[in-house]
Amino acid sequence: MKIKKLLSMTLILTLIFCSASLAKTKSKNNYKADKNKPKSQVVASGVDFINNSNTTGGITMTSATNSSAIAEYRKVLLNNTWNSLRKKADNFAVIDMNQDGIPEVFVGCHDGINYITALMSYSDTGLEIFNPGGWEDCNTEMFVAVNPYDGRIVTERKRGKDTKTLYKFDGKTLNEFDIIHYNSTEAEILQAAQTSFNNLAYLYFVDMTLENIDTYLSGDGKETGILEPWNLLTYNY
User: Fold this and answer.
1) Does residue 105 share a domain with residue 118?
2) In terms of pTM, does the model score above 0.90?
3) Which of 1, 13, 88, 134 is most exposed, with the fewest beta carbons within 10 Å of its own?
């Protein structure tokens, strides 16, 4: 009888220990990206964007201005003048980041060693090209996620120490707003995920082909859209 009671107590303690270990493992894995998860194009699936602004400075762009912007984007992508190194783009994404009726274009390329990325915007002053890392340095920052209703944009560092940088785009300027890097504490990461880095979605990039140029950068243009929600906590720092 005593042996049976002893075995029962041993079994209960074993189950409690295993459950605690499993819970701890799950909590730790919340910070790891599921790199094998396929992405499918959707429209803001699971992202409850808050639309804080419909125009920039009270000005809504006309269709004629929009057509001029699309034509300019198309030209600089095709002749490789979107960057000073004259590199051909690998992919691009089209989305209106300040809700003025004119989409912005995110561009990226990787020549096997270096990364180059750019944000192209068009306004009453013409074409503007923003680059967070500098052309000559062949920057390591790549645009990955956005909120098109408040102008927030996330870049990820592709070489060296893991860094996530948050920018704000107001239609005229691109300014650094917040940053999480390899030595940020768990508390800092959690706070950023709940505040400045919340409510974001992956950009949907398409390959740089003539077919895609014709689809998205002809006439008044067409947005490529966004993917599933982007979460700061799905990365291991």
Assistant:
1) yes
2) no
3) 1
